[in-house]
Design brief:
This protein has about 200 residues and is mainly beta. It contains four helices and 13 strands.
Length: about 200
Amino acid sequence: MSAHILQVQEKLSTGTGVARALRRDALVPAVVYGGSSEPEMIAIDEKDFIKEIHTPGILSRIFTLKNSTTEQHAIVKDIQFHPVTDKPLHVDFQRVDANSQIKVSVALHFTGQDKSPALKRGATLNVVLHKLEILCNPKSIPEFITVDLSTLILGENITLDNVELPADVKVCNAKRDHVVATLVGGKKDKEEEAA
């Protein structure tokens, strides 16, 4: 299901003192919850996790959490960061089942800016939605969703209706006429000015 493997250690006790001791040892305290199993306290290597944080799409990536005896698949649901150093303080993982549907946020990737007639005339792209919450099978999670701007003209909006979704992917809690991006400003055609 995933090529993103994190080695984990079981964390047998909880509390602030235990969490601080783990952080001193360059580990990040974490919890894995969901599915039919009880929540499990774990610790992950800080350096390995920071590398994953700096790779786009961390919230839509399936991780294989491995310890000496077991392995489980999970997705990152929340990361708490230190307010000054920006180091991860705590991570929440949600277990995923290959046969169930999950909600994830996926980045929107805008293409066709060089072909858009309005953008060629100096219009400004105003992105309203940078990511989209979708419902899909863990195997079907796209890295990003592409939004084509090549046919967009001045004053036109791109709505969720205009966004092509991959097969087996549904948008969660959004109206189909929800605006994703708009084009504003720029020069109008001579025909538009005459009208």
